[in-house]
Amino acid sequence: MDIRLYYREEGAGFPLILLHGNGEDGSYFAHQTEDFKDQYRVIAVDTRGHGQSPRGEKPFTIRQFARDLRDFMDERGIEKAHILGFSGGGNIALVFALLYPERVDHLILNGANLDASGIRLPVWIPIITGYRWARLQIKFTELLTSGRAGAKLLPAGIRKRLRKKREQAERAFELLGLMVNDPNIPEKRLMNNRNPAFRKMKKLVMAGDRDMIKDRHTRRIAACLPNAELVILHGTHFIAKEEYRTFDRVVESFLRDDA
Q1: Rounded to whole angstroms, how far apart are CA atoms 98 and 185?
Q2: DSSP alpha helices (H): ranges in the chain?
Q3: In 3D, which of 90, 44, 105 has the Cα closest to residue 239?
Q4: Fewer CB within 10 A of the terminal residue: the chain, N end or C end?
Q5: Is the torsion defined by CA of 77, 83, 89, 94 positive or negative?
Q6: Contact 190, 33 (CB under 8 A)
Q7: Contact 165/139 with Cβ under 8 angstroms?
Q8: What pLDDT is attached to residue 230?
Q9: How far is it, in rounded angstroms, from Cα 96 to Cα 93?
Q10: Are 95 and 119 a contacting pair, CB within 8 Å?
Q11: Model confidence over 58-96: pLDDT tens digits?
Q12: pLDDT above 90: residue 160
């Protein structure tokens, strides 16, 4: 493991790991931490390159984030946990469950998607536009600042500003790339998965009725997952924050259901 993930931990009992969305950090789950700390060992993790977790040198991908979570659990002595993932964190949670099903008890996916086709068009257009623009900025600033020509023709102050602009573009390119290129999970990988631990694992798929993820895409995820429940709440993509009382009641009921 090339980095140590930052995390916030409260409570005691069976571990409940919370995975935030793209560009956010574990503080997104402030309400869930407060509501569940009396029942569970609640751990809100900052993903690689997010919040207070370092970027490190390894790939900036959903699958690497899943491997980071495995290493984090090993380091903390956590053999198995409930895992709740929101948005990009939901994608990490799903990939983690596919790779390490024996490490997951209950799996909760909130606003997750299998690929970019699941994102509504009004949201997708700014994402893909920003991704391509960031790539152009990286190439342009690299051209201007690299080699002898850049060193000779541009004043030091301008070169410094261009390097800063390139760093910002690289950051945007990586973050947006998580939505453009990941997680790319084929439906058949969910439907045809014969791993007993994965099939037995209880799963809850949640989204808002005004979510940025297409309703039919969310429903398709639930339909493809064995032993899965589907709950659509009134609200946006951010139901865990904006409708946290309802959201937490649903999660609590799901986690308590061991029948």
Answers
A1: 10
A2: 30-36, 62-75, 88-99, 121-145, 147-153, 156-180, 187-191, 196-200, 215-224, 239-242, 244-256
A3: 90
A4: C
A5: positive
A6: no
A7: no
A8: 98
A9: 5
A10: no
A11: 999 999 999 999 999 999 999 999 999 999 999 999 999
A12: no
DSSP-derived letter for residue 80 is -
Q: What is the dihedral of CA 129, 84, 234, 127, to 10 degrees?
A: 0
What CA–CA distance (Å, rounded) separates 69 from 18?
A: 11
List pLDDT tens digits, range 238-253: 999 999 999 999 999 9
Long-range contacts at 52-60 (CB < 8 A, ≥ 24 apart) = 52/6, 52/25, 53/3, 53/4, 53/5, 53/6, 54/3, 54/4, 55/3, 56/2, 56/3, 57/2, 58/2, 58/3, 60/174, 60/177, 60/178
pLDDT at 150: 56
Residue with tokens 């949670």: 93
CA-CA distance, 259 to 257, in Å (whole number)? 6
Using a cut of 0.90, tell me whether the model's pTM lies above it. yes
Closest CA to 99 of 119, 71, 125: 71
pLDDT digits (tens, 9 = 90+) for 185-222: 999 999 999 999 999 999 999 999 999 999 999 999 99
Judge whether 215 and 209 are in contact, CB under 8 Å.
yes
Tokens of 254: 């799901």
202 has which bridge partners? 106
End-to-end C-alpha distance for the chain, whole angstroms: 37
pLDDT confidence tier of residue 258, bands split at 50, 70 and 90 = low
Asked if the peptide bond before residue 54 counts as cis, ω within 30 degrees of 0, the response is: no
CA gap 141, 145 in Å, rounded? 6
